[in-house]
Amino acid sequence: MKAKEHFKTLIIKVGIKNIINLFICLFSFGTLSAQQSENVSSDDGALPNIIFILSDDQGYADLGSYGSKTIETPNIDQLAVEGVKFTDFYVHPICSPTRAAFLTGCYAPRAGFPDVQLWGSPFGLNPDEVTIAEILKTKNYKTACIGKWHLGNEDVFAPNQQGFDYFYGIRLVNGTQKFENFAVPLYRNDSLLTMRPDHSKMTRDFTEESLFFIEKNKKKAFFLYLAYTMPHIPIYPGESFRGKSGNGLYADAIEEIDWSVGRIVEKLKAEGLEENTLIIFASDNGPWAGHGEQSGSAGKLKGSKMTTWEGGVRVPMIMKWKNVIPASKVYSEITGIIDVAPTIAAAAGASMPDDRVIDGKNLFPYILDQKNTKIPHEIYYHYAGTWLQAVRSGKWKLHFARPEVRPGRYGESADWITNYAGIFKNDLLYNLETDIGETKNLVNEFPEIVQELKSMTMKAKEDIGDYSIQGKNSRPIGSTYLELTDITQYPNSKFARKVGEEMMTEMLAFQKKRFNKLSKSNKPLNNQEAEELEFYIKIFTNEKDK
After folding, report:
1. Please, which residues have CB within 8 angstroms of residue 403's CB and are 6 or more apart in sequence?
2. What span, in angstroms and rounded, lies between the C-alpha atoms of 23 and 488?
3. Residue 243: other Cβ atoms inside 10 A
4. Is the distance from CB of 308 to CB of 390 less than 8 angstroms?
5. Which of 354, 346, 352, 280 is nearest to 131 (CA)?
């Protein structure tokens, strides 16, 4: 989309006031805020290159450096050897909110994107939000988003309209079952390449695109946001990695990501860029349980994706910047995805916007503190959608009572979140220093801690919000469906029914083609293909019976 056409679209779909605010925000980064007063830089003062690599649904225990005995990840583990390993790093329990929190430095409910959106929905990250890519553009960085976006399907919400010079990837989630189902359009910038890319080539292609971007911009400061779709289901490792790990598809996919990270590091070394490049690696949420060899492990942590137990929200995070931040350091204070943007901004000598609340902290002063006397967060809030389910402060974690199943609220806390919440009549308090698995409830032994945490939490409920409660400083999601003022009613709208029918029609046609191909194959089917064929047989047998 050309710049003038984009501007016109924004005015029509988002509103003139929002455009004015956006321009004001983009040109108001002159003064560093207090939280960014300690910036760092390389020895020669050059702006550093920045690479943020985000895996999808990777469990806490699914790296060698985080305890895995079955998955080999030497390249990512080497980042930890040469950098800082974070043991208590938190994200949101599902993918889109984590991505919104990363880009804005805010809890996702504050940034207006607390939950994932359905296929074809008219909602996305509000253009009024100022992303870390837009912040880095004020320092003349070349910026790229490669891989999974998942913050809006329509052009007005796409990466090229959110501060990224270049985009190659998908705007949606890559699937919701153990083999390919709905179409996942692949884009280069705003141009649609195909409705159904080869999932087994995604990791390789995203890596190749990243290497090309580095090559093209090696003489400039660049920011690369590389968001792999793996190991989110459906897992399709590259053909050279399928079966290589000997421990299932999930392990195959992780080992392919590790190999890809190794290629990126090798490229940086070959171009003499390693010492002036900040590399950050993390996962967007915990593993998605219940999918056999396509599910990962949270190790000793309880819970999984879509829950606010530790296994759903605590993930690996590693940061390396050679000769700038310490090597082989383990940092165990509370940190989170909300801290990544402020940290990146500080590395570039830029500032976060000062016209709105920013929740994250620049982590450099904390990891460089030799005496370790400072902590980034006195309290950290665990939101599942807009539902504030738990908080952590120091060693203590408090889950608020959930005496009944709450109805899902689309766009806020949908059924896929509320159905995972679990029921318990009373509050639960855990000491994570001695009970990382959240097994021993100490609520009766420490009532004063419970009361203190509840008191601290009242501020967040007023400020950011809670289930069905709008926070006074939470911001709206972007929408091109302006006549729908209540997003929770979207699934019942004519728009939703129309795009849902389009999705199902295309998907059914694809499934029939796959059924014919698999059922007539002369080659032996692998386990994933055999399971897929069995699924289609049930579908089309039932269809005939009707």
Report:
1. 423, 424, 425
2. 30
3. 15
4. yes
5. 352
Q: How many CB atoms lie within 10 A of CB 239?
A: 11
Residue 476: exposure state from Cβ atoms within 10 A (0-12, 13-18, ≥19): middle
pTM over 0.90: yes
CB contact at 8 A, 264 and 211:
yes
Instruction: For residue 106, indicate whether it is catalytic.
Output: no
409 DSSP 8-state letter: B
Kindly name the residue from 25, 92, 106, 150 that is annotated as catalytic: 150
- Degrees, nearest 5: CA angle 126-138-141: 100
DSSP state of 402: B
Burial group, residue 4, by CB count within 10 angstroms (0-12, 13-18, 19+): exposed
Whole-angstrom Cα distance, residue 95 to residue 306? 9
Under 8 Å between Cβ of 396 and 432: yes
d(CA 116, CA 385): 9
Let me know if 150 is a catalytic residue. Answer: yes
Tell me which amino acid residue 17 is. Answer: K
What does DSSP say about strands 84-90 and 314-320: parallel, antiparallel, or unpaired?
antiparallel
Inter-residue contact 143 to 490 (CB < 8 Å): no
φ, ψ (nearest 5 deg) of residue 146: -125, 125
**Measured between alpha carbons, how far is 196 from 216 in angstroms, rounded to an integer?**
28
What pLDDT is recorded for position 39?
62
- Give CB contacts under 8 A, 24+ apart, made by 245-252: 245/70, 245/71, 245/72, 247/70, 247/71, 248/292, 248/293, 248/294, 249/293, 249/294, 249/528, 250/62, 250/293, 250/294, 250/295, 250/296, 251/70, 251/71
From the candidates 25, 95, 106, 145, give the one annotated as an active-site residue. Answer: 95
Please write the tens of the pLDDT for every residue from 26-80: 333 333 333 344 566 555 568 999 999 999 999 999 999 999 999 999 999 999 9
Q: How far is CA 221 from CA 129, 206, 319, 348, 523, in A?
A: 23, 20, 18, 9, 49
